[in-house]
Design a protein that fits this description.
alpha/beta, TIM Barrel, 8 helices, globular, isomerase, RibuloseP-bd_barrel, Ribulose phosphate epimerase, metal-binding
Amino acid sequence: MKYSQSICAINSYTSLETIDELVKNGMKHIHVDFMDSFYVPNFGVSFEAAEFLIKRYPNVNFDAHLMVKNPLRLIERLVQVGFETIFLPAKEINKEEFDKISQNYPNVFFGIMLEANNDPNDFRDIVLNSKKILLMTINKIGGTGQKLDENLFKKVEEIKKINPEILIYSDGGLRQENTDSFYNNKIDVAVGGSIIWSFETIKDFSEWWNKKYA
């Protein structure tokens, strides 16, 4: 199981120092939230900040997590910025639209974000043709500090029944005391935020994670 750091969960004044240390200690994934204050009552990262980070860490896999209305309007800009993985809200896109962007941008991995109230089977055709999917493991999106809802892991089996080869990213509720739940439920990439501050140093966190899950 790989670890991915959520940028929005890091203090903006110390973010580069924190990410530098995580990457130095082996982190290969970074999760970037884009929010519009309408879909969820928050704002996320700017395009300019995301482009800066992608250029700064060329060996890291960046994913864009869209929590916005009409997400298709952002695709071209996100591709220009350099994202190769983009997750869209499941209820904001249909199969025809998904197929079109997949054809237009063949070098980009597109997937859907499944919220707590989304049934994977309602989006079967998209899941079947995706390489990656983002499973929310909290009940309310758009905030930090939300508690894990372990019942949402039941969707992993449903997703794998549809597409056994798909990579599952989780987002939300990751804590030092529950990481085994993510691993045991076959999450491929676990997005975390405040978990890194449970350790005295970033190096301590990285060594702990890599020893358990690398």
